[in-house]
Design a protein that fits this description.
The complex is a heterodimer. Chain A is of the alpha+beta class. Chain A is 36% helix and 11% strand. Chain A contains 9 helices and 7 strands. In chain A, a hairpin with an 8-residue loop joins strand 1 and strand 2 (18-24). The longest helix of chain A is centred in the last third of the chain and has 16 residues, at 231-246. The radius of gyration of chain A is 21 Å and the shape is elongated. By secondary structure, chain B is of the alpha+beta class. Among the domains of chain B are: 267-408, Flavocytochrome C3, Chain A, domain 1; 488-611, Methane Monooxygenase Hydroxylase, Chain G, domain 1. In chain B, a hairpin with a 2-residue loop joins strand 6 and strand 7 (201-209). The chains are: A alpha+beta, B alpha+beta. At the A-B interface, helix 1, helix 2 and helix 3 of A face helix 3, helix 5, helix 6, helix 12 and helix 13 of B.
Chain lengths: 258, 646
């Protein structure tokens, strides 16, 4: 198939970007979207032009690196896939495809389609963990966990941290991302111990990084390649409210803290 | 040639690790704060090591080429992680896990290392559960297990088909906690270009900031490489696009011996190759062999009709199907180890019974299990894998059997390390897939995650202290020492040399050609003539690369082509060493199959008299051949015999 591509080109974080139009021909319908981009880049290199820079790594939908905004959708038109799992059979011969980077203030463009998602790491660093050191742990079966809770926790833990939720949201909210981590731990007995501190720390960091708030449009859930449920956001809101209202006020933090 | 000292502790096998821990030198808390450790890589081994070392009080600097440590390729491991918990009451034990791993590795691994691995396996599961890893559970709330190849017990813990993801996110969360506390300094989008050796000890690394292009010098009291395997030598593999050998290869050129480079794992269940535009191969987890049955048509004409689209697999009658693994290996059936399953698939396809457009595929069929257990059960076990398959192949595996074929997956070889996980360069450690230590000539399924986390959480934090205990008086290093400046100059010069070639062929085109040479001659079946040919061809390709590669742009910006070029340049050297090692090893063992050495039934034929050793290759310079050192493998506790899965 032959395609017209309109791709966002931007030299670096400080320069101004623009759309550039390219033509690619003889693309196989069974190739992936990124393999189509490889074909384009190979031809650009041969011509002595600068190839299009984009993040990608595992190419099997799990590392969360790839991040293209295709025809107005994060990861393109197919449901529940990352860009690397999107296949060209979802397009028609002669189509024009518009490709942009994630657009959100906390994700500045570094070059072309590459954005900086360090803000997500910062949210996890604020409290997205259970404070245990290596070693000295009781047996793994010491605390039975209801299967339904383990399964719900796993549903939330499937988040790959790609940032499609932020890119899809008109408020550039990171609520789906943060709530997935809050939920994963809030559903497990091991995670309950710090649940209150965790949700407050992560929400505060989310705000500090400049992500917007949630206005319940549901775009994040609709575009999430891992189909993370928006009910996690409801759970995070409940956790946050109860933390604010019910959590005991401790004068001074002792020991390691969160 | 140097004397190789594996530092295996004396005493009976089950006591070695306990005794080692009781007597090894430690560093006291006040001194730990003064000692800096560089950890390169943030996968299971790297992240778990960085977090654990920081918890102990060391100052850690942690590097990855990805934009976030959470994206290291451990994330893609699907099936599970082994541990000798015996929760299933099916007769498992530390000894049995040890024995299965030694046997699975075809008696080419160190007994003491493997036993230690089996010993700490249980602590890993405890650790991960405490971190909030949502492993699969039974209705009673206890942990569930599944079976993997090469074992007759169910000892594999899993989190759907995303076990690697969940374990890595666990380690990443522990790492993030230490970053927040200020004990770990994180350098994402940084690629290691070289290791700096000062007075015979590893004292730092040279890295390139992949955003600005700046070359930086970083110093520390010890350097840990957790940079994964080198399967991308083959271009097409299940590795991530960025997975590379640069860190371990540069370490090799600075004096670290390379252990068993030819031991490569070809995984039996991957989605077959479908076109020359293809950039990577996708694994279908080994766990699928719990419920899937592997077959090809019994009749050649059926296979031919299927290849030409005249017949569907579902139209082949039961009696016309050849379940060749169940036929050849009744005791283990579809759960034979990976090397055995891969070779059996190749044998059937080479004999003309392969399916798919290319004839290079076999079926993995779930219809029996779906009839027995219902679609819902299969979906809950493998739903995400089935979905992934459907996206790539555009066929519904619930209705028509999956097509699979072997693909490069894992490298058992890596930097030679002693019992303390230290390379032949003092102060330079290698952990996880980057070292050669625990899997011998073939790794069993669900053992890579176990080894990565064992090294990072429970082994290195002890053994590195034995080295650092005599470094407490060494003050903080300055990266302005002449050795740092010289190594930086060499790294910069090499990048500039690559940019200056301005030839006509792309980096990928060279990588693909190298991959073909490797796959044809250093892949699943190897022979003397092919290996000799490969050595010559790789040398020629390398020469052509340095004359004619075309890299656009400059060194001072994000430049993915330049990144790839550096990696491919190293693969072009490592590939040759792999061929040399395969040529030297005149036997078949595990994943290394020399066609000249096989039993009448086509099984791997070892030569224990001459080759019961780990090969440790020494770099001797650009224009001279590498030198072979041998570490004899003494089997004190296990009887070495022909592997039998019948």
């Amino acid at each position: 198939m032959n395609l017209t591509l309109k791709i966002w080109r931007q030299k670096n974080a400080t320069s101004k970007g623009r759309f550039v139009t390219y033509q690619v021909n003889d693309i196989s319908t069974s190739s992936s979207f990124l393999e189509m981009m490889d074909v384009l880049n190979e031809s650009l290199v041969i011509k002595g032009e600068d190839p299009v820079a984009f993040d990608h790594d595992c190419r099997e939908g799990i590392c969360g690196a790839c991040s293209m905004y295709i025809n107005g959708h994060p990861h393109g038109p197919d449901k529940a896939v990352t860009t690397c799992q999107l296949h060209m059979r979802k397009f028609k011969d002669g189509d024009t495809i518009v490709i942009e980077p994630w657009r959100a203030r906390p994700f500045p463009v570094l070059k072309d389609l590459i954005v900086d998602r360090t803000a997500f790491d910062k949210i996890i660093q604020a409290g997205g963990y259970i404070s245990v050191n290596t070693g000295g742990i009781p047996d793994a079966n010491a605390i039975p966990i209801p299967k339904v809770n383990a399964d719900l926790s796993m549903d939330a833990a499937a988040c790959i941290g790609c940032g499609a939720c932020v890119a899809a949201c008109k408020n550039a909210s990171a609520m789906l991302f943060a709530s997935a981590k809050v939920s994963q731990f809030a559903l497990l007995p091991q995670g309950r111990i710090e649940a209150s501190e965790r949700v407050q720390a992560m929400v505060a960091e989310m705000d500090k990084q400049g992500f917007g708030n949630c206005t319940n449009t549901g775009a994040c859930e609709a575009e999430c390649p891992k189909e993370i449920s928006i009910s996690n956001i409801a759970r995070m809101n409940r956790e946050f409210l109860s933390a604010k209202v019910c959590a005991p006020k401790v004068k001074e933090q002792s020991g390691g803290g969160i | 040639m140097a004397e190789l000292n594996s530092k295996i502790p004396k005493g009976p096998l089950p006591q070695k690790w306990t005794d080692y821990k009781a007597h090894t030198n430690l560093v006291n808390p006040a001194n730990k704060r003064r000692l800096e450790i560089i950890v390169v890589g943030t996968g299971l081994a790297g992240a778990s090591a960085a977090a654990s070392l920081a918890e102990l009080g060391f100052k850690v600097k942690n590097y990855c080429y990805q934009d976030s440590p959470r994206r290291a390729h451990s994330i893609a491991a699907q099936g599970g992680i082994n541990a000798a918990k015996n929760y299933q009451n099916d007769g498992d034990s530390v000894y049995r896990l040890f024995y299965d791993t030694i046997k699975g590795g075809d008696y080419r691994a160190r007994e003491a290392n493997v036993h230690r691995l089996a010993e700490v396996s249980n602590s890993i599961i405890d650790q991960c559960v405490a971190q909030g890893v949502p492993f699969a559970r039974e209705y009673g709330g206890l942990l569930d297990n599944r079976s993997f190849g090469g074992a007759q017990v169910s000892r594999t813990f899993y989190a759907r088909g995303q076990t690697g993801q969940q374990l890595l996110l666990g380690a990443y969360s522990a790492l993030s906690r230490q970053v927040k506390k200020g004990n770990v300094e994180l350098f994402a989008r940084h690629e290691m270009l070289d290791v700096v050796v000062v007075e015979g000890r590893a004292r730092g690394i040279i890295v390139r900031n992949l955003v600005t292009g700046a070359i930086e010098r970083h110093a520390a009291h010890a350097v840990v490489l957790a940079t994964g395997g080198y399967g991308n030598v083959f271009f097409l593999s299940t590795n991530a696009m960025g997975s590379n050998a640069t860190a371990i290869w540069k370490a090799h050129k600075r004096g670290a011996y390379f252990g068993n480079p030819c031991f490569t794992q070809i995984h039996p269940t991957c989605i077959p190759v479908h076109g020359d535009f293809q950039s990577k191969l996708t694994l279908m987890s080994e766990s699928l062999r719990n419920d899937g049955r592997i077959w090809v048509p019994k009749k050649k004409e059926d296979a031919e009709n299927i290849r030409h689209g005249k017949l569907l697999p579902t139209q082949i009658a039961e009696e016309d199907r050849d379940y060749y693994l169940e036929r050849r290996y009744p005791a283990f059936g579809n759960l034979v180890p990976r090397d055995v399953a891969s070779r059996a698939a190749k044998e059937r396809c080479d004999a003309g019974f392969g399916v798919g457009e290319t004839g290079l595929a076999v079926y993995l069929d779930f219809s029996d299990s779906i009839n027995r257990l219902g679609k819902g059960v299969i979906e809950s076990r493998y739903g995400n894998l089935f979905q992934m398959y459907e996206k790539i192949v555009d066929e519904n595996p619930y209705k028509t059997p999956m097509m699979i074929y072997p693909a490069v997956h894992y490298t058992m070889g890596g930097l030679w390390v002693d019992y303390e996980l230290m390379t032949t360069v003092p102060g330079l450690f290698a952990i996880g897939e980057a070292n050669f230590s625990d899997h011998g000539a073939n790794r069993l399924g669900a053992s890579a995650l176990m080894q990565g986390l064992a090294d990072g959480y429970f082994v290195l934090p002890y053994t590195i202290q034995n080295y650092l205990s005599d470094q407490i008086r060494v003050p903080k290093f300055s990266p302005d020492l002449p050795e740092f400046i010289q190594t930086e100059k060499e790294a910069t010069g090499r990048l500039q040399r690559l940019l200056n070639i301005k030839g006509n062929q792309t980096v990928d085109s060279f990588h693909k050609r190298l991959g073909l040479i490797m796959w044809d001659n250093v892949g699943m079946g190897r022979n003397e003539a092919g290996l000799k040919k490969a050595i010559v061809e790789i040398a020629k390709l390398r020469e052509e690369f340095w004359k004619d590669v075309k890299i656009p742009g400059t060194n001072n910006e994000i430049n993915p082509e330049l990144e790839k070029a550096g990696r491919v340049a190293d693969f072009l050297e490592l590939g040759e060493l792999m061929a040399r090692d395969a040529l030297n090893r005149n036997e078949s063992c595990g994943g290394h199959f020399r066609e000249e050495y096989q039993t009448p039934e086509g099984e791997a034929l070892r030569n224990d008299e001459e080759f019961k050793y780990a090969a440790a290759w020494e770099y001797t310079g650009e224009n001279s051949e590498p030198e072979l050192n041998r570490e004899a493998l003494d089997y004190e506790f296990v009887e070495v015999k022909q592997r039998n899965y019948k």
